Amino acid sequence: MQLVLYVVAMKVLTSALLLLGCLSLSAQEAWVSLSKVGGFSAWKGKVALFKVQEEVSQLPLEFRGPGANSFAVSNAVKEENGLLLLEIEFKPTTERGYFSAELVVGSGDGAQVVQLRGVATAALEGKNEPPLQELLDALGANLDAGGKDLSLDSKATKIGDSVKASQFEPVGDGAVRLTPLARYSPPGDAPFGLAIPNGKEFTLQAVGSLAATTPARPDAHQTLRPPLATGAPNVTVVDAPKRFGLFLEAHKYTSLTFPGKSVGAPIKHTARIYPVEALGGKALQNAYIVGFEEASNGDYQDAVFLIEGVKAVK
């Protein structure tokens, strides 16, 4: 149900805009990522496009692609300097699946294109959940998760585009940013943070928590862009340690990015680390996607984070 939105106007984007959990990013391509759980109302997202010449009443809007019928514009507002705000709704035509389309805004040389992606699930939890590959595709990550099934290999050293690394080193000024991208796990608070090696032990430094479900957000544990307990879109760690992994205090055990170190885990690899060069149309540097497993099936989408400002090391 929750919407993840990375959006940028093609050709003319000049600034970034944060709107209700929907992020406009400086990039070459507009991109919208949404998710919906059957039986729950879908969230709507806002698209910001710049230097739009036409007035709203005369603005051509055309949906194209195999999933065109699963998206709609529910509102449009034209502001100063040609700024157009579009509200996008995800209305999947089937209760389960991955949907892709594009929205062409305007016509001729002034036309702008917004890529639309959606992930629909029939109900909460269990086998209803989408595989990690669908989530990566919806986010525009252009990564091979290691398979298209819900359960992935939890024994192999690496799968798909993942790397053998287990920890990170900060780059630049030492500031590290963690952004939750997806969560498909049992409900409840889920603290996460830095796992700092200390001999054979680890010091766990919590930096945030994925929020528990509420009547207003009954899908908080089964969504793209899951909410943080603070309500912020991400967490920045200033002056991160020289070497650290990540942890997720999950439903059954504390999952670590260090293979074989998660106490009580029935599998060796409770996390996978994927280098990512682009996300939702935005080019990235020194960035990785980390997917956690909190049980034993190796879906690696119990919590999925983007970590920026680091390089991965063994």
UniProtKB/TrEMBL annotation:
It comes from the Bacteria. This is Uncharacterized protein.
